[in-house]
Specification:
The structure is a homodimer of 180-residue chains. Chain A is an alpha/beta fold and 180 residues long. Chain A has a single domain (2-168), classed as Nucleotidyltransferase, domain 5, CATH 3.30.420.10. Chain A has helices spanning 39-57, 73-91, 102-110, 117-127, 137-168; strands spanning 2-4, 9-16, 24-32, 62-65, 97-100. A five-stranded mixed sheet of chain A has the order 3-2-1-4-5. In chain A, helix 1 (39-57) packs parallel to helix 2 (73-91), helix 3 (102-110) crosses helix 5 and helix 4 packs across helix 5 (137-168). Chain A starts with a strand and ends in a 12-residue tail after the last helix. The interface between A and B is medium-sized, with 26 and 26 residues.
C-alpha cells in the first residue's frame, strides 16, 4: 500500500504483485480534508481512513513518500504531519514502513527520476492495465509508491538472499546493513 | 498539558491552574527515542507515552508548539512528525488542541518573545515554585507551553464571555471568530 501524504489530498493506493510478474490494482482513492478545519480534525480524518484501509486490505507493507522541506514551507509541514499519521498507523500494527523519495518513485516507474506527474500517471495506468489514469494525481502517485515498493522490495529481497548465501559460504562476508 | 515535540527528545508537561491564580505542577517528563531507530518505531514510542499521559492525567486541553521550517530542515521534519502524533492523540479523544508559537510562549512566560531557554526555564521554575529548573530544556518548554495555554486560554475565555454578553445585548455585535 502506498500513501502520498497531504492534508488537503492524501492519496492512497494498493497493488498486488511481486517483482517480475504483472501487477494488479487492489484499491485507489484519496482522503480530502477541508483547509479551514483545524489540524487536529484533519489528521483524525486521515488517520481513520488509513486505519480503514489497513483493516480491510491488510497490506504486507506501507510505502510513504519521504518528505523534504524544499517546497512551500506551509505545505511541507502539513505533508510531514500527514506522513507521520500514515507511518504511525502502519508501525503500531508492526507493518514494515518504507520511505521512498519522489525521484526514487519516478525512476522506478518511468526510468528517469525527473519524470513529470503525467508520465508517472501514464506508466501507472499501463502497468496496472487500467482503462483510465487514476485521478487526482495524488491517487496515481500513491499507486506509483506502492509499485515502486514492490519492485524495490524485490531488489532488497534478492540482496538479502545473496547476502544470506554469502554468509553461509565458507568465507564470511563482511557485515553490512541490508536496508541502506 | 504541553508538548514540545521532537523525535530525539519530546518534552511533556502538565500544570493545573487558571488565569490569575497560582499554578501548580502536575507532571513533567521527556520521551527519548534513539536516533538510529526507524521513524515508525520512534513515532510509536512517542504516541504510546503521550497516550499514557492522556489516560492518567486526563488534561482539559493539549498545547503543542507550532512548528516552523525556519531551522534545520532535517530536525524540522521530525519535529513536525512528532507534533502530528501529539495532535492526533489529543484530537481523536475530542480534546481541544492549541498551537502556540515559540515566541508566543516566551512572551507569555517571560514578557518578551525573544527570551532565551534559560530565562524561560527560570520563569517556569518560579511560576510553579519548583526547587530546581526542570531538565532537559524540552521538559521546561513543555511546561511553558502548558502555562502559556492556561493564560492565553483565560484571555480567550474572557473574550468569549465578552462576546456572549455583547451578543445578548440589544445591539448585535458583528460575527467574529473567537479563536483567532
Amino acid at each position: 500500500m502506498g500513501v502520498d501524504p497531504g492534508l488537503t489530498r492524501c492519496g492512497l493506493g494498493a497493488v498486488e504483485g511481486r517483482p517480475g510478474a504483472p501487477l494488479s490494482l487492489v484499491s485507489v482513492g484519496v482522503v480530502r480534508t477541508p483547509a479551514d478545519d483545524d489540524i487536529g480534525a484533519r489528521l483524525v480524518v486521515i488517520e481513520a481512513e488509513i486505519e480503514r484501509w489497513l483493516d480491510e486490505l491488510k497490506p504486507d507493507a506501507v510505502a510513504v513518500e519521504r518528505v523534504f522541506a524544499q517546497h512551500n514551507v506551509r505545505t511541507v509541514m502539513g505533508t510531514a504531519q500527514a506522513s507521520a499519521v500514515a507511518i504511525v498507523c502502519a508501525a503500531r500494527r508492526g507493518l514494515p514502513v518504507a520511505l521512498h523519495t519522489p525521484s526514487e518513485v519516478k525512476a522506478a516507474i518511468t526510468g528517469h527520476g525527473n519524470a513529470d506527474k503525467k508520465q508517472v500517471g501514464t506508466m501507472v495506468t499501463r502497468l496496472l492495465r487500467l482503462d483510465a489514469m487514476p485521478k487526482p494525481a495524488d491517487a496515481a502517485d500513491a499507486l506509483a509508491l506502492a509499485i515502486c515498493h514492490v519492485w524495490r522490495g524485490g531488489v532488497q529481497h534478492r540482496l538479502a538472499d545473496a547476502l544470506a548465501r554469502a554468509r553461509s559460504a565458507p568465507r564470511p562476508a563482511p557485515a553490512r546493513r541490508e536496508d541502506a
